[in-house]
């Protein structure tokens, strides 16, 4: 019999709690749910008002993985949704994970959380810039370090403050809070900086997605700023061999990285980090810290 859990007044059926999702560590579905409930305040702060896409892996990272944007079948009526106009479906909607019950319901589906760079109230008007630094083997996150530092300083020259998090997979994400700006304009700016990074670090950086260009280099993926694209949310677990999380990190931690393991954080690492440091990405949530893109006047 599927147990029913009451979460802030919502009845949620939780299934297969003892199922091992990460065989390498024995991490179970119940532990996944416990993780998300524990980090909920920090995670929800970053996703509660953003349409969410799910990468589902119900049988673990070695099983079937499938990406879904539409609300999954059986989505409870109390889970909020928001319109997300798409060229292929003008009436499309996506889920809003706006509170703890919605988070627990979604976590029970076994998902990665991916979000747009704009809030639900203003589709295609971004309040974030993101750069996904993706190392092509044999490069690792160690090679991402100088690229991240170059981008941090370049953004600072434009009055923009970058914050870093691990992707939870292979690389690093940089995030910048910006004043609301059309996604097309943010995308153009991000592409220009990726091209500048390639020019400044030609043996290390590539700004184009072609796989033939990427071995041994760091792909600065600027494309996730497009209105239709999404990026792994802070604190989401990833469908990787171990229960790695997309973990906010300090610039001191980035600068000190000399081994790929230096910036790998598992689910059990995140609550102690939050207790010690708080949410390192909290400044992204403060409108007073949002910067204006060059050429935009307050």
From TrEMBL:
<dbReference type="Pfam" id="PF21686">
    <property type="entry name" value="LigD_Prim-Pol"/>
</dbReference>
<dbReference type="InterPro" id="IPR033649">
    <property type="entry name" value="MtLigD_Pol-like"/>
</dbReference>
<protein>
    <submittedName>
        <fullName>Non-homologous end-joining DNA ligase</fullName>
        <ecNumber>6.5.1.1</ecNumber>
    </submittedName>
</protein>
<keyword id="KW-0436">Ligase</keyword>
<dbReference type="InterPro" id="IPR052171">
    <property type="entry name" value="NHEJ_LigD"/>
</dbReference>
<dbReference type="GO" id="GO:0003910">
    <property type="term" value="F:DNA ligase (ATP) activity"/>
</dbReference>
<feature type="domain" description="DNA ligase D polymerase">
    <location>
        <begin position="28"/>
        <end position="280"/>
    </location>
</feature>
<dbReference type="InterPro" id="IPR014145">
    <property type="entry name" value="LigD_pol_dom"/>
</dbReference>
